[in-house]
Amino acid sequence: MRPILALFIPTFALVSQATAEPFDAPPSKYAEAVNAALQQVGTDLRIRQVSCTDATRCHFAARLVDVEVTGPEDRPGTERIMVAATFRQGDDEAAAKLIDDTLTVLGATMVAYDPRMSADRRGEVLFDLGDAALTTGEAHRDSADVHYALTFDDVSGRLEITAATLRAGHG
Question: What residue segments make up the domains of the chain, in order of their start?
Fold first, then answer.
């Protein structure tokens, strides 16, 4: 699966999107922001809203990738975005497609919600997180504004990548 990462990562290295303070937008605006980035790279993958339980928590999906976007209780905005997928054992072809979709959603999230991250750094972080998903199962990376945390549970096949504002803390 590593050759897939090498081909995929450069796609988001060249994309940029001008957004003042993306984490100030409410969780319900996630699909709008990320779909614009997905369109820029020419993928047919799109985010759709599944539900919003209130102004602070919304669920989205893109094929088999789930996204949960949460905001603080005390003010409008977004604090955490969790991109997740569950892999089935024994289906390497499906796993390759799912990791590609997951990293595509994460790359678009980086473009939309971490616009000050340089294209080179974005590519490096995407590669590091993708490699960690396939090897160690855990990784933490920071940009100037966002903390990225990856966990992969071999037993359940669950991959979770969280992007949180540094002001929200690493918890």
Answer: 2-168
